[in-house]
Amino acid sequence: xxxxxxxxxxxxxxxDIAARAAVKQAELSGTAERAPVADDYMYDFKYNxxxxxxxxxxxxxxxxxxxxxxxxGIVRQLSDALGTGxxxxxxxxxxEYGVWRDKLSFTWDQRTFNFRPAILKAARDLLxxxxxxxxxxxxxxxxxxxxxxxxxxxxxxxxxxTDLVVASAVIKxxxxxxxxxxxxxxxxxxxxxxxxxxxxxxxxxxxxxSWEAQRxxxxxxxxxxxxxxxGGQNGLALAAWCKALGLNCLVVERSEEVGDVWKKRYEYLxxxxxHWADDLPFFRYPxxxxxxxxxxxxxxxxxxxxxxxxxxxxxxSTVIETEQDExxxxxxxxxxxxKESRTVRPKHVVMATSLCGVPYTPTIxxxxxxKGGEIRHSSAHDSSAAFAGKKVCVVGTSSSGFDTAFDCSRxxxxxxxxxxxx
Length: 422
Fold this sequence. Notes:
This protein is globular. The strands form four sheets. It has a six-stranded mixed beta sheet. The chain has eleven helices and 17 strands. The chain has three domains: 5-12 and 358-418; 57-192, Nuclear Transport Factor 2, Chain: A, CATH 3.10.450.50; 217-351, FAD/NAD(P)-binding domain, CATH 3.50.50.60. It has helices at residues 17-29, 41-47, 54-57, 67-84, 87-92, 116-126, 211-220, 233-244, 260-263, 295-308, 399-410, and strands spanning 5-8, 94-103, 110-114, 133-148, 151-161, 165-176, 179-192, 226-229, 249-252, 313-314, 318-324, 330-336, 340-344, 348-351, 375-377, 391-395, 414-418. Helix 8 links the parallel strand 8 (226-229) and strand 9.
């Protein structure tokens, strides 16, 4: 019996599914040569190199290891290599399959260099123009972390400076037969040396206009240096940093309220990652915040964030037209609040309109004649309650697919979860 409702969550993006299925079947039957574990780098990284356990390294970190002293030794070598621009010495500090992740401190971008050859190439390009100095330890103190009997690593945090930024590095090192080698290093620019964060406002209302009236005026009359299109996590975080650096910024968000990107998702959704990395700059979650944040709660947090940090945001607004002249100046026409057209002339325009793109629903033969009920994409799903007593097929087994199937099961619905791959 056909399901009465189909909820589409297929991840297809123009791939010939039938052809892929035929290849997979040939692989399983042994009539075709099986492909490598992965066609892309991330799978290769995840599955095709060994975790640096004691049996792989042939060395065990002693129980009485002086973490502070060993970390100081690594930092001395790191400081020497970065201070002199010695790319070979810098790369040699890493494990053969070590990883260097940089956020703005050396690359002015967010880059990851995987394994020693890529790290060496990057260092040869970057270190001649970016010297690092003034290394100092930050809290917490260096420690040997032993999550498993056969795996241990020395981890510590340091600050350092280049000519342009104050930065930090989180380092995790393992002990090898050739001494300590960095397994991962994560470098992050924390502050622009020539553009420090502004001091907070005094707050005393000694003028002729109240704080509330002043805020309304600032939001309505915004003539930004920077226009951010999109008021999700990235748009809000960038606006907050711009304001902290003294830049006039405006966010344009099409939703009715800040946070609707989460508040209007399906009712039983919680974020799938622990909240440790989900909060936004200058506004940490309270200590009692749940480990996995309910989506509606995350949306409220974003709304509180925008209000508390006094960010200039036009909601229910969309960009109609943009134009950039030969000198690089922007003219942007905005439909504000669905009621009026406003023109702004920012120096910079930032697209912060999500990393996931628009929902994709593949065309499947018979969709136009399907009589069982509704066909909807998971992005339009809010609740399974209306499907009670019906059969539901959920197509796709990524996060939203499992969430939707579980929501149906919770409501006592006969649900089938359909997955393309074996």
